[in-house]
Specification:
The complex is a heterodimer. Chain A is α+β, with helices and mostly antiparallel strands. In chain A, 32% of the residues lie in helices and 25% in strands. In chain A, helix 5 runs parallel beside helix 7, helix 6 runs antiparallel to helix 7 and helix 6 packs parallel to helix 8. The radius of gyration of chain A is 20 Å and the shape is globular. The chains are: A alpha+beta, B alpha+beta.
């Protein structure tokens, strides 16, 4: 589904204006851009790293519109011009590309063209792309407004759901993250807490136990078992 | 810094002190003027204004003739459940006397806001570069009367009204057309009758189309500095001739002189939220050319400000159209997020019409580039050039 148009583009990612006000794609979700190609079609894969809604004119700051009787969604019916004076945009980090059914998890050679459409990735595309987890390394190195740890966690949660709660994939992703964050136990724990699908104490969850085997807590080093 | 802020600072303090003394005195006079407003029978005032008009020399001020009572107040009717308010505004880049190339830019903004079961908004602008003789001169055959200054301002008014009229063409809901600024184009007053009628032609034509479509038109003036009604009170108080104040020894002289500084918006500060005054006719000479579109006005408490609303007589004399204009204008102000409020349809039309300083520079650069593409250059006056360089 077409959800936006690229309004700023660079080798590491792009910013797109969302077609729907206040509805950027979910943080961490996959989006796809069909890049122009003389040969076979090329799909660029990116992960949403930020979403925001601002005034169309940067010199006009949004101001409070609610009253005691008119608030939340009713404001948009009361002030129909807001649909035109506000805009929602989202940033996405490029994490790979696909051509002729082959997935490459590294930056494409060229950024996507300005004003090209951005699509949500289909279930099939998400499953296909996340078969390999190399892209998580690229995602962790993203420089964005939102912490890359939170983006990675959001991405794993999102993919877990889109893969029909595939626990094997989740454990594999947790192991990959543990390898990538083995020198930063605090950060690892943060991500594991954020991706855990619902155990009471995430620090003792299966995911954490599994990952701790790869990246043990340095503060416990030398202590008695 | 050549501007002597220290000197100006002292003068500012003096100005503030002067205002501090003036305000309480003025407030007392406003109360007296409002009492007078309530006392005067409208018919008697109209008679006095008529008799003064016959005398020579004429009344030196712009006066208002009441079309109802002087101090009547009318509550705002409820706006229709489904209503569309179309706002229009315009701006321009004036011809540059210091450039060898003569052109101007017009930008007309329109905002059509629909309320009700299907809320919607259409915002847009219409921009044009005017460089042909028929754009630059009112009488292009003779290359006479260049369109600049006041006349360019009038052209903008006419264009914004035309845009309003076009935007309301396909209206299916009850619709109100609001313009930012007056409908009485009094700035044309000093022009020849030929210039006046030529300039007014398009303006009045658009009003006719709106009239045929039964779409009430309002000219919205925020913080109006008009004195028309206050001037009528001065005529009422005047025992002699209104242009011989220096010889006046009437006991009402102090109030009369104070009225010269009282704005109508202060006079009507007794209106409560949503209430409008009764209608008044203007004595502006330009209205003689308006025919059936002669303009009346009323004051409206929009909730934080007394705004002046000008409207053609065909609206003023039709209770349904007048009620719709009153209700929709007040409803607009209730939807405003600012205080004092301002109609969102006019705010958005302004945002569409406004030309920023960056855009002005860009237009200049684009014109120079277009000329350079054909091997031509735009010459500028030495004065303008030296101001741009500002060398030391």
């Amino acid at each position: 589904m077409m959800i936006g148009e690229i309004i700023e583009t660079m080798s590491t990612g792009f910013v797109a204006e969302s077609f729907e006000l206040n509805q950027p794609p979910a943080l961490g979700s996959f989006v796809v851009v069909h890049a122009p190609s003389a040969g076979p079609s090329v799909e660029l894969y990116a992960v949403v790293t930020n979403g925001r809604t601002v005034g169309v004119d940067p010199s006009r700051r949004p101001i409070r519109q609610s009253t005691a009787a008119v608030f939340d969604q009713a404001i948009y019916e009361h002030q129909p011009q807001l649909k035109h004076t506000l805009r929602t945009e989202f940033s996405a980090a490029l994490v790979g590309w696909a051509t002729e059914g082959r997935i490459r998890q590294h930056l494409p050679s060229r950024p996507p063209p300005l004003h090209f459409s951005v699509h949500t990735a289909s279930e099939e595309q998400v499953q296909h792309f996340t078969h390999s987890l190399q892209y998580l390394r690229l995602l962790l190195q993203t420089v964005a407004e939102v912490s890359p740890l939170q983006v990675v966690a959001a991405n794993v949660r999102e993919v877990f759901e889109r893969r029909d709660q595939d626990r094997d994939w989740l454990c594999q992703a947790a192991r990959e993250i543990a390898i990538l964050l083995k020198s930063d136990h605090e950060a690892l724990l943060n991500v594991l807490q954020a991706i855990d699908p619902g155990e009471a104490d995430p620090a003792n969850s299966a995911l954490a136990r599994q990952s701790s085997a790869i990246a043990p807590d340095p503060s416990r080093r030398g202590s008695r078992p | 810094m050549p501007l002597k802020l220290a000197v100006i600072g002292q003068q500012m303090e003096q100005m503030a002190e002067s205002a501090a003394t003036f305000v309480p005195v003025q407030e007392r006079f406003v109360e007296q003027a409002q009492a007078l407003l309530r006392r005067i029978p409208a018919d008697a005032l109209c008679d006095k204004l008529d008799s003064q008009r016959l005398q020579q020399p004429r009344i030196p001020w712009l006066v208002a003739s009441p079309l109802g009572s002087m101090s009547g107040a009318v509550h705002a009717p409820a706006p229709p459940a489904e209503v569309c308010v179309v706002g229009g505004d315009a701006s321009s880049i004036a011809p540059d006397r210091h450039s060898s190339l003569r052109y101007y830019v017009l930008n007309v903004g329109v905002a059509a806001l629909t309320y009700g079961s299907h809320p919607d908004a259409r915002l847009g602008s219409d921009s044009q570069l005017c460089f042909r003789d028929e754009d630059l001169y009112l009488f292009p055959d003779k290359r006479d009367v260049p369109l600049e200054g006041t006349l360019l301002g009038t052209r903008m008014e006419a264009e914004s009204l035309r845009a309003l009229q076009r935007a309301t063409q396909s209206a299916t809901l009850p619709t109100v057309a609001l313009r930012d600024g007056p409908l009485i184009l009094w700035t044309l007053q000093n022009e020849s009758e030929l210039v006046q009628s030529s300039m007014l032609h398009a303006f009045l034509e658009s009003m006719s189309v709106l009239q045929q479509a039964s779409i009430p038109l309002g000219g919205y003036i925020s913080f109006s500095d008009a004195h028309d009604v206050a001037n009528s009170l001065r005529v009422w108080l005047c025992q002699g001739r209104p242009n011989a104040c220096e010889r006046c020894d009437s006991e009402e002289r102090d109030l009369c002189m104070a009225l010269a500084k009282i704005h109508d918006r202060e006079l009507f500060s007794f209106l409560s939220d949503g209430q409008r005054s009764e209608l008044f006719g203007s004595s502006s000479q330009i209205l003689k050319l308006y025919g059936e579109h002669r303009v009346a006005f009323f004051y409206l408490n929009v909730g934080g400000e007394i705004a002046r609303i000008e409207t053609p007589l065909w609206v003023a004399t039709d209770p349904a159209l007048l009620g719709l204009l009153h209700a929709a204008t007040y409803d607009q102000c209730r939807r405003s997020s600012g205080f004092p409020p301002y109609p969102p349809a006019l705010l958005e039309a302004h945002e569409q019409a406004v030309i920023t300083s960056a855009e002005r520079r860009l237009i200049e650069e684009m014109v120079e580039r277009a000329m350079a593409g054909l091997g031509l250059s735009v010459k500028r006056s030495a004065k303008d050039d030296s101001k741009r360089r500002r060398g030391v």
